Amino acid sequence: MNATAATPTGTPPAYMFDNATDEAARQVELLADILDPHTTEVIDRIGVRPGWRALEIGPGRGTIAAQLARRVGPTGTVVTVDLDPRHVQPAPGVEIVTGDIRTVDLEPARFDLIHVRLVLMHLPDREEILARLVGLLKPGGVIVVSDWDCTWRDMLIDAPPSVRDAFAAFQTALTDIAQDHGVDPSWARTAPAAMRRAGLTDITATAYTPLCRGGEPGLLLHASNSRQREAALLAAGMTAADLETLRDGMTSPDTLGFAYLMFTTVGRRPGA
Ligand SMILES: C[S@@+](CC[C@H](N)C(=O)[O-])C[C@H]1O[C@@H](n2cnc3c(N)ncnc32)[C@H](O)[C@@H]1O
C-alpha cells in the first residue's frame, strides 16, 4: 500500500495510534524505557544550558521534557505540544500544551532547542513541519529529530521459525497500516537530507538499535503495538493465532532481537 498524503476530503490522515487507549499508556512507557538512554546521550552532547528555551513535540510520557526542565533550570522554559497529552507526567518547569504542531500558535525564533521523537515519521507533511520548526528556532538553535527506520524489519536474530514468521507478517501488516495513515517508513534515514534542504547546518546523525531478549522493552513494544492495532491487523489478514505466537515470542527470554532501528539527526539553524 502507498503512503497517503491526504484523505479524499483533503485533510491529513489521522495519527495511527490512539492515546485514549490503555495500551497507549503502556506504549509511551516502553518508548521511554527503550529510547531515553539514547536521547539523553544526544542531549548531553548538545550541552543544554541553564536559561535555554526548549520545545518538545509529542512528548509521550514526558520524561525527556522533565529532563530538559532540570537542565534549563528556573531561568529556562520547556514547552510541550501534543494532540493528546494525557500520558505526560507533570513535572516542575514543563508547560503542557494540547495542540497540533501543524497549527499551534508559537512565537517564531524563540527556542534554543527543539526535540521531536517519533512524530515527524507519522505526518505526511513532515517537510513543511520541519520548515516550520526551523522557523521556531533562534538563530544558532538546535533541533533533534528521531524516528524509526521501518524499512529494516529483519530484527529477530534468534527465535523459533513460528515466531519469525508471525513477526514478519506483523511487520508487513503494521507497516501497511502505518502507510495508510501517512507514515513514511524510510523518512528517518533521509532526514539529514531534508534538514539540509531546510537550511540547517552542522548536521549529524546516529543510529541506535539495542539488542534485546524477549520480555525487554525493545521487544515488548511489538506486543504492545499489536494490541493497540489488533482490529486492523486482523482485518489485514493476520489471525488471532499469529498474534498470540508473536506476543509469546516477544515475552519469551529465549528470543533475541534488535529493537527498531532509530536514526537521530541533529541540525543547527545558522546564525548567532
Ligand atoms: C509515538 S508517540 C511518541 C511519544 C514520544 N515522543 C516518545 O518518543 O516516547 C507520538 C506522539 O506524538 C503525538 N502527535 C502525533 N501527531 C501530532 C501532531 N500533529 N501534533 C502534536 N503531537 C502529535 C501523539 O499524540 C503522540 O503522543
Describe this structure in words.
Helix 1 (22-46) packs across helix 6 and helix 6 packs antiparallel against helix 8. The protein is α/β, with parallel strands linked by helices and 272 residues long. The protein has helices spanning 22-46, 63-72, 126-136, 161-180, 187-197, 217-228, 230-235, 240-251, and strands at residues 53-57, 77-82, 94-98, 111-117, 137-149, 156-158, 201-208, 211-213, 256-258, 261-268. Helix 3 links the parallel strand 4 (111-117) and strand 5 (137-149). 39% of the residues lie in helices and 22% in strands. The chain has a single domain (22-268), classed as Vaccinia Virus protein VP39 (Rossmann fold, 3-Layer(aba) Sandwich). The strands form two sheets. The protein has a seven-stranded mixed β-sheet, with helices on both faces. A three-stranded antiparallel β-sheet has the order 6-9-8, with helices on one face. The model is unreliable at 1-5 (pLDDT under 50). The site of S-adenosylmethionine has 22 residues, from helix 1 and strand 2.
* Ligands, ions, cofactors: S-adenosylmethionine
Strand content: 15-25%
Global morphology:
globular
Give the N-to-C terminal Cα separation: 45 Å
Question: How many strands, which pairing sense, and closed or not: the largest β-sheet?
Answer: 7 strands, mixed
Short characterization:
With 272 residues, this protein is α/β, with parallel strands linked by helices. The chain has 8 helices and 10 strands. The strands form 2 sheets. It has a 7-stranded mixed sheet with strand order 3-2-1-4-5-10-7, sandwiched between helices. A 3-stranded antiparallel sheet has the order 6-9-8, with helices on one face.
